[in-house]
């Protein structure tokens, strides 16, 4: 498992009974997490004087935030030389997945050591954590997401990090249709990142189902890789999907066309007060040998 150990502005303080207490800069949030099936006491009771806001799930789906103290509309946290805007969203999210810092470090290292200009495509790119990381390493980035709101949020993160004058394109589009058009255009990329949801809809209502569509998407992405690709990274939070599935897909697609190595596994975050690790998702990486 790859574990983040250097995110100073973020930590999981404690976890119990399906909840995790997190520190986002100076703001403390109590949020649900389905992986936390162990019992270490009632966190709301233990840390009531410390918690700024709690997210409560609804039996009918979704949920709501209850602010116990004054929580700003947005605030910022830093990771290395990157700055991210954090906001309370519906469905418990905050606009950032800190466990992805292990993948940001991987991208930054590969790009900085490539010895050439790297062109990156970020699909299902969300609020742009990976896009900002690649910009920080000197790459040019094409950032694609079906949500205009996520695109605008990425712009905010890029500006907050001081990379607004860097080479980045923002596109509101369905990722499959975008890749199909890039094949026809003959455009190529040295690195491809994707963070596909389990289910979703494209910019014009296109339906995405990871079990039905992921292999096809990765396969057609091999047609827009450059002659000397640097890496191909897949993240997933789909429950029940093994990291070996991502390994197998990369083995049957990218690795059939290019010489490199594949790795896969889980990503996780440390829990400060109990010295435990919270599993947070899976990854599959293909990377060149350079």
Give the terminus-to-terminus CA distance: 24 Å
Going across the major beta sheet, what is the strand order? 1-16-17-15-12-9-10-11
Mean pLDDT: 95
Q: Number of DSSP helices?
A: 8
Short account of what is shown:
With 290 residues, the chain is of the alpha/beta class. It contains eight helices and 17 strands.
Walkthrough of the structure:
There is one protein chain. The chain is α/β, with parallel strands linked by helices and about 290 residues long. Helix content is about 25%, strand content about 35%. It contains eight helices and 17 strands. Strands 1-16-17-15-12-9-10-11 form an eight-stranded mixed β-sheet, sandwiched between helices. A hairpin with a 2-residue loop joins strand 7 and strand 8. Helix 2 packs parallel to helix 3. The longest helix is centred in the middle third of the chain and has 13 residues. The two termini are about 25 Å apart.
């Amino acid at each position: 498992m790859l574990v983040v150990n250097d995110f100073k502005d973020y930590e999981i303080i404690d976890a119990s009974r399906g909840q995790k207490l997190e520190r986002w800069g100076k703001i403390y949030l109590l949020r649900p997490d389905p992986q936390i099936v162990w019992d270490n006491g009632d966190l709301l009771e233990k840390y009531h004087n410390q918690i700024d806001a709690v997210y409560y799930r609804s039996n009918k789906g979704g949920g709501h935030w209850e602010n116990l103290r004054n929580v700003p509309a947005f605030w910022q946290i830093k990771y290395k030389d990157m700055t991210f805007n954090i906001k309370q969203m519906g469905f418990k999210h905050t606009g950032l997945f800190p466990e992805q810092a292990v993948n940001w470090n991987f991208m930054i290292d590969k790009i900085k050591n490539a010895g050439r200009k790297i062109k990156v495509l970020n699909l299902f790119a969300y609020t742009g954590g990976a896009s900002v990381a690649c910009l920080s390493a000197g790459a040019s980035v094409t950032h694609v997401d079906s949500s205009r709101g996520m695109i605008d949020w990425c712009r905010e993160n890029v500006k907050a990090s001081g990379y607004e004058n860097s080479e980045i394109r923002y596109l509101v589009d369905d990722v499959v249709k975008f890749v199909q058009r890039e094949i026809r255009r003959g455009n190529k990329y040295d690195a491809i990142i994707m963070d596909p949801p389990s289910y979703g809809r494209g910019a014009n209502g296109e339906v995405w189902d990871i079990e039905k569509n992921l292999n096809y998407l990765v396969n057609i992405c091999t047609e827009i890789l450059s002659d000397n690709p640097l890496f191909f990274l897949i993240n997933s939070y789909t429950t029940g999907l093994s990291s070996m599935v991502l390994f197998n897909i990369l083995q049957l697609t990218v690795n059939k066309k290019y010489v490199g190595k594949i790795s896969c596994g889980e990503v996780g975050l440390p829990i400060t007060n109990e010295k435990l690790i919270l599993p947070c998702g899976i990854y599959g990486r293909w990377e060149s040998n350079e």
